[in-house]
Specification:
With about 130 residues, the protein is α+β, with helices and mostly antiparallel strands. The chain is built from two helices and six strands; from the N terminus they run αβββαβββ. A five-stranded mixed beta barrel has the order 1-2-3-5-4.
Length: about 130
């Protein structure tokens, strides 16, 4: 019996180890450009579901972007709630966009919704 438990534990460990790089890549910043940029857009939808709340926005050029906010606790600490933005609101996002320019995806450091700022990652704010 001991042998079976050990083998099962090893198999489970290997399976979980296989998912670790995916999880780290998703939650880290490696996929994003180092330099921050600003995107001005209109909110299409707001999602507060874990692991990262996010927004879908339509940029002034008509393209649709996915904006990742912080984890739920960070997002809440910034003051941003589910009703902080609604479809049609104007938003300015300061953040790090995906290194793959074909992907319209950005990790927000600060968002400003209709003039109200929400700083999600104060330690990452870069001077203009």
């Amino acid at each position: 019996m001991k042998h079976g438990i050990g083998r099962s534990t090893r198999l489970l460990g290997l399976a979980l180890a296989g998912f670790a790089p995916v999880a780290l890549a998703h939650h880290g910043w490696d996929w994003a450009e180092q330099e921050q940029s600003t995107l001005d857009a209109t909110v299409v939808s707001v999602s507060m579901t874990p692991p990262h709340p996010g927004l879908q926005v339509r940029a002034d050029d008509g393209s649709t972007w996915k904006i990742d906010l912080g984890n739920p606790n960070q997002t809440e600490r910034s003051g941003f709630r589910a009703d902080s933005a609604r479809a049609g609101d104007r938003i300015s996002v300061l953040g790090n966009r995906n290194r793959d320019a074909a992907k319209k995806h950005m990790k927000a450091v600060r968002i400003v919704v209709e003039g109200t700022p929400y700083v999600l990652y104060p330690e990452r704010l870069q001077a203009p």
